[in-house]
Specification:
Length: about 425
């Protein structure tokens, strides 16, 4: 019997939702995009043309979509973090299942409200914890499941956020001010990492969390002498400041273009003059030391588990290079991996003469460079299996399986706000 494709509506046609929707182009027998809800006229029309969607199935927002009769199986919700819950609930109440971007809620109250709706309506909701599907972490998970390193004693995770990523997202960009975006940096950037920690620890549940962190570098008192407020308007350091908009964006026009050059969307081959005019007025042209950012640029989290095992996650922004690393110590061995370098090193105890351990290295450099190392595609494939009632992979994140990671983030931020006080789950 031939299975019908899962039909989907794109809600919020940003680059994350589109990354999953693109799967339908190569696999129309598995996924079909049949509708879109997007307030931006250019993006909405682009999706309509790209997927040949009738005008009657195009909506300006989630409200008008929710008012229409249900006409698809699922919604791919790629809206901004702070409106995930308010855009999801009416559609879940209408009977849609959903692929929902992380973080699925920005506080515990919202999280509980969304979970109640999902449980009451028995919706199938999967959260886009896409790093679970990256070959680095799936390799590590399979090693743990096999018992290769025994029981986990300690897990150490580190995320170094490059200075240009920090600038674009967390100093100048849309996740820089918690009063506006309603998320902390830990939630916006590292709910992936805390989800990975919970996933790799398996059935060993977290019982307490403590955390410290602050805004350390990019604040007015650290601004260079005689610096201006806008890089290309009033700053004499514009040509040599390593954090200036000219060197960071004009000299690297293809970096972060989805964010920095959003006003040039749809314009072919924009000129440097057009880009310069944008930076003279946009948030990305501000002095990095004189923005309205209030989120941390570094934070450390300590998690205690039911078994007595411990986990740490260290976030550090402003690094020269973005890098995620992980080290896990078990009773029989250890695992070390680097996301960007694409390898996993596994050492197991061996006290034979002339040895202390055996080592094997898993080389993953042949995995794709785009889509989180092929993880975007793997997640979409798993979502289709999840919706069809088939057996998804070990990486699959139902909303229920995403609760623990989100709760640890919420408690970590609460601990940080209370000078590292231990918070109990």
């Amino acid at each position: 019997m031939t299975k019908k494709p899962v039909t989907a509506i794109i809600l919020g046609a940003g680059h994350r939702a589109m990354a999953y929707a693109e799967y339908s182009k190569a696999h129309p027998d598995e996924l079909q995009i049949v509708g879109v809800a997007e307030p931006d006229d250019y993006r909405r029309n682009h999706v309509r043309e790209l997927f040949n969607i009738p005008e009657s199935m195009c909506f300006i927002d989630s409200v008008t979509l929710a008012q229409a009769p249900k006409f698809a199986d699922v919604v791919i919700n790629g809206t901004m973090d702070e409106i995930h819950v308010e855009t999801s609930i009416p559609l879940l109440e209408n009977g849609y299942d959903m692929l929902l971007e992380k973080p699925f809620a920005v506080n515990e109250e919202e999280m509980n409200r969304l979970i109640e709706v999902v449980n009451r309506n028995k919706n199938k909701v999967m959260i886009c914890h896409v790093l679970r599907y990256n070959p680095i972490y799936s390799t590590i998970k399979n090693s743990i499941i096999s018992g290769e390193i025994g029981k986990i004693i300690n897990i150490q995770m580190v995320e170094d956020v490059s200075y240009h990523h920090l600038s674009t997202s967390y100093v100048r960009g849309k996740w820089a001010n918690s009063q506006k975006c309603h998320t902390s940096m830990l939630l916006a950037k590292c709910c992936h990492d805390l989800d990975l920690m919970m996933w790799l620890m398996g059935d060993d549940e977290p019982v307490s969390v403590s955390s410290v962190g602050s805004k350390f570098q990019f604040k007015p008192e650290n601004a260079p002498e005689n610096s201006g407020t806008r890089c290309l308007v009033d700053c004499p350091r514009v040509d040599y400041c390593e954090f200036g908009a000219k060197r960071m964006y004009l000299d690297h026009p293809d970096s972060w273009e989805v964010y920095v050059w959003k006003d040039l969307e749809g314009i072919e081959n924009p000129t440097e003059e057009q880009r310069r005019a944008i930076l003279e007025k946009s948030e990305f042209g501000r002095c990095m030391f004189k923005c309205d950012n209030d989120v941390v640029d570094h934070q450390s989290v300590l998690v205690n588990f039911k078994s007595g095992a411990t986990g740490t996650h260290n976030l550090a922004g402003g690094a020269a290079q973005s890098l995620r690393t992980i080290r896990i110590i078990g009773t029989k061995g250890e695992i070390y991996g680097e996301l960007e370098s694409k390898f996993v090193k596994i050492k197991t105890i061996n006290p034979d003469p002339g040895k202390y351990f055996d080592e094997r290295v898993v080389d993953l450099t042949n995995t794709p460079d785009d889509g989180h190392g092929g993880a975007d595609t793997a997640l979409t494939e798993d979502f289709i299996k999840f919706i069809r009632g088939e057996n998804p992979s070990v990486s699959c994140t139902s909303i229920e399986n995403s609760i623990a990671g989100h709760r640890v983030v919420f408690l970590a931020d609460k601990s940080r706000e209370n000078n590292g006080q231990t918070m109990y789950i």
